[in-house]
Description:
Helix 1 runs antiparallel to helix 3 (43-68) and helix 4 (91-110) packs antiparallel against helix 8. The protein has 8 helices and 2 strands, in the order αααββααααα. 35% of the residues are buried. It has a two-stranded antiparallel sheet with strand order 1-2. Strand 1 and strand 2 (79-81) form a beta hairpin. It is 68% helix and 3% strand.
Amino acid sequence: MLLxxxxxxxxxxxxxxxxxxxxxxxxxxxTGAGISAGGTGGGAAQVRLLSFSNTCARLFxxxxxxxxxxxxxxxxxxxxxxxRKRYISRLAFLSAACVLMIAAFFWMxxxxxxxxxxxxxxxxxxxxxxxxxxxxxSIVAALWLGPSAGRNFGIVTYAPFVxxxxxxxxxxxxxxxxxxxxxxxxxxxxxxxTTFWITTVTSGLGLILSLILLRRRRDRI
Length: 221
């Protein structure tokens, strides 16, 4: 959660400045046209995509998780059992979110040259963020059945509180290192490409950790 949601919130907090440093479209980028502040892929468009994809992910992933991975029940004599057939583990949704962010951050680091190129990253971030927050409460409840579930979920929700400042400081430090000689704010992809190479790696680490947890606890989640 720290690696996944921290990097997602870093992107959401800074996407407005990121889009201002690149041309509005690929055509403008390839022809060498100047940066257009009023492009269709500007900050407002990115925020709308983030909000819409985040909301849709929460509405869709919740029922899908309940159908494919019903929450476990505890019987005083027979132990943990599932009320109906389970197709996958709920941890698979977290793993899928990590895979999605690996692809999004890799594209941000290696392929983005215009504002419209960031559409995919905004949508992927909204989906991964919404899906993660949707399935996490039930995952925590399944891992720690009983009165401690609420307390442990509260502890887990501190992950973005820690991760977001860390990744934001990383972004700010790298951006400042490319600041113009006249002291003006850094613009262009060089300001954040290194940041997203790093978040690609950290998302990969998050995927590995989620797969390890999936392998160890798939019998109860």
